[in-house]
Amino acid sequence: MQIEKVYEPQRFEPHWAQWWIDSGLFRADNKAPGRVFSLVIPPPNVTGSLHIGHMLEHTEIDVTVRWHRMRGDNTLWLPGSDHAGIATQMVVERKLAEEGLNRIDMGREAFEARVWEWKAQYGDTIKRQMVRLGTSCDWSRERFTLDPGLSRAVREVFVRLYEKGLIYRGEYMVNWCPRCHTALSDLEVAHSDVQGHLWHIRYPVNGIPGRYVTVATTRPETMLGDTAVAVNPKDARYSDLHGRTVQLPLMDREIPVIVDDLADPAFGTGVVKVTPAHDLNDFEAGRRHNLPKIQVIDENGAMTAAAGKYAGLDRMEARRRVVADLEAAGNLAKVEEYPLSLGKCDRCKTPVEPLISTQWFVKTKPLAEKATAAVETGRIEFVPPNWSKTYFEWMYNIRDWCISRQLWWGHRIPAWHCQECHEIIVAYETPKACPRCASSKLEQDTDVLDTWFSSGLWPFSTLGWPDQTEDLAKYYPTSLLITGFDILFFWVARMAMLGIEFMGDVPFRQVYIHGLVRDAERQKMSKTRGNTIDPLVVTEKYGTDAVRMALLQGAAPGTVIVLTEERMESSRAFANKIWNAARFLFLNMERSAVTPWVPESLETFQPDPDAVTLAAPIEDRWIFSRLNSCAEQVNRAIEQYRYHEAAQLLWHFFWHEFCDWYVELKKLTFKENSGLTPGWRNTLAAFETALRLLHPAMPFLTEELWQRLATADCRPKSISVAGYPQYRQELTDFAAEREIGILQEIVTLARTLRAEAKLDPKQRLDGKLYSRTPALDAARVHLAAIESLANVKLELVADAAPKAAVMRSTAEFDLILDVPQAQQEAQRKRAEKECEQLKKNIGNLERQLGDEKFLGRAPADVVEGMRKKLADYKVQHEKLCGAL
Ligand SMILES: [Zn+2]
Ligand SMILES: [Zn+2]
Question: How far apart are CA 408 and CA 401, in angstroms?
Fold first, then answer.
């Protein structure tokens, strides 16, 4: 029962974090009966370390998971991490560069070995951090996207999709990063607005001396690869050019004028240059018109031999030369400033180069149709629901998914190229010979798969697929996914497509999209702004529970989550408040030698058998009734992912009901009896229940106190597997709530009066309490408690109050205190001010309630509430101003 004076979470949090894991409490049992609740973690990058966004995500998941576990559900939270192809490769390459090495010289195998080495050394940072923060996942089922099992799933999916015709190899315009040497998906390209230029270039028309067409371009160096110019079929200005050719300046090449919608008559001169090898729209126009593709920029961003005398130059240098030469030749009509959206590699910020290359693609349309239908028919539900709109928009316009990456770190594509006949063999196992020409000269494709290809299989590959495991049978589909909106397309949509295709069912029933953590000014947190909050620093400072509570309090669905030092500070004070309440309870249990209490039943909370009868102390009946109502609301809030509401309800209950009133009332009975009354078992039962109610939000504090509260046997060994309090109708006690309500009202009145008169709280005052309602009887019953809590001596008068200067009123009571003359003046001034304010409030309400338009618009209950308030103000005004 010993309990330290000060709440120091640093002293016990690491202990429980480790103990939870050692005790196997979070290990799921696929043979256990009961309702299933399963969830896979959005796998953090293996390169990562925990940031505050992770902590928010993990806290929300953890609250939900702990809640399900306590409700007795067969609960699995599967953790793991992603190999994060490009990110990891870059980290290791940077390390190699420091040692003066590079991967090309090392060779593929040695490099891969080096990455695995790196992973063994640094790859479990996030895991260690998560363990420390007590996230209740099943570490025995931890997975990594490059695990042998998951790699087998990747190969299985690739081969099956290929055989079904849903994976193909094709020439395509890809976003190429000349730095990272890889194709980037559209989603990996970051666009930013920059001030560029629009160069207007004149191309002479062949056969019509003196006739030119002028094209405008933001990238003049690409003109070296033009293979046509286009005019719009409806543009009468150029109808005479149909079928003609123009002469490409600098290259002295004859190129056709094509007629195509690519040219917009309203843009510039209405003529556009066509460079099929370096622009996606031109690439497609080139396909329509069978134009040759001349690649003038290579994968390093340098000019190719096809660029003639510019060959070998960097693309930017080539631009300067091309512009200078065009000007010298008199082909540059004009240059203007032009704002443009520049695509850069999301990783290294190098401007991307659209290049044609041969890549592997997934034909997404057939997959997307099913994944769209799953949301349309409600088999997958988004929370908040408006995210489904964003999802649909993307799915309806989905393009084929380029899945090959020119990296070494990742799942190598299971395709082999015959060096003799160029046959491509896609297979589960390395083939021995070419099925077409029998050659044994086979080389595996050098590309690896997009990281999102393997994480797209995460909900079933982690459960053992392609084997039909018990885990898979039990836990797929998962119940819920909690993730950020930034990976809705990268990840959520891909999981939906692949899950439905390979499992025949959706990968998750619900998707809760959480918000972003922002600072006090609602600014994004970023290293450059210097406003980031390191979860490990703040959890060390305030305790993990306090940071969790601070995050949860702001976590209303569909909003940004503001996290500030003040919020964490006050959450720590909240934890401290509970700690102090526990200290008081424990010390008194000890003083009166009460045996540690063993809960009767943990399925639902169970106070002392005779507790909640009318014979029980009124404050016990009251606290159980309040606790019951809190349990009802918190259950509902967690069920609906209204974490902020759950946090506020718990906060209010513990602080403003349990600590401020219940414990204070108990202290009084204590003084009287100089020891514990029999009803004390109820007090402990209420506290124990409240701890369980709080556990999902503040797991460490609650485990620490719960373990001290009860003996070792005949109960679950951890609060994390004790039953979660549920609503029980028989515990609702309106009579007790009404009575304690009256007590609270009078004490609050007296405290307010005292504060307004600026009196020392220690100075005992005399006073009179007037009421002409039966509420006075309740006041009489609790007079001793009221007098003690408010430090007053009261005379109760069953009559209307006379006019007095130092007076406070509610609808049922008038309280007059004998305040010394000196303070009365201050009190009178304050009352005058209050009178003014009441008058204003009354005026405002009357104006609003007289407004027909407002009455037509406002909901009935709002209007009703306003009418009540108005009546209340009027009573108060009359009493107060009458007294003056
Ligand atoms: Zn790059
Ligand atoms: Zn062959």
Answer: 20
